[in-house]
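Researcher: Here's a chain I'd like modeled. Treat it as a single chain, no partners, no ligands.
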Amino acid sequence: MVAMDAGELNAFLAAAFPASPLPFAVTRADDQGVEISQPFGDNHLRPGGTVSGPVLMTLADTVAYVAVVSRIGPEFLTVTSHLAIDFLRKPPPAGLRATGELLKLGRRQAVIAVRIHSEIEDELVAYATATYALPTKPSVPRADLELPAP
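Model: Modeled as a single isolated chain. Structure tokens:
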């Protein structure tokens, strides 16, 4: 059962990372997982005209974070403890769609499977697994953050 829907997750991320506009949007959050869409930008390219690995890794880490927060609620101190990624094919210069599926949600950690697809022909370009450490106590929201209403 989800604790936060796509709109609440987008508001939470905007409040948690206010320094710049986020380059993606949460488009789905349900019992099967979450989905994030990231439009293409010229700054995503590496030599050879393909989307760079750091862009894919950032997207994988972000969708894993969103998958966890969608289930446990607005916990800022949920952090990555492990991330492994396999680059399956060179992504063309196009937008990306990433899905995250919670494989295990325990008291201390969560394990997430991430699939990243190119918008061109919806081909799978990367697969990742991530482990997140969960806070032992609920985090205290920073005073400067406006959280979505429960």
